[in-house]
What we know:
Elements: H1 19-29
Amino acid sequence: MRSEQREKAVFGKGFENGIVVIARRLMATGLGRGADPEKN
């Protein structure tokens, strides 16, 4: 079986600067998972 991942778009006025898109991408990728310098 093939796993399929879908993204949902965010629409609204005032989002021309792309901040919402960047925030959504960071949340989807885990916000830098495993990059904690305190654990090394």
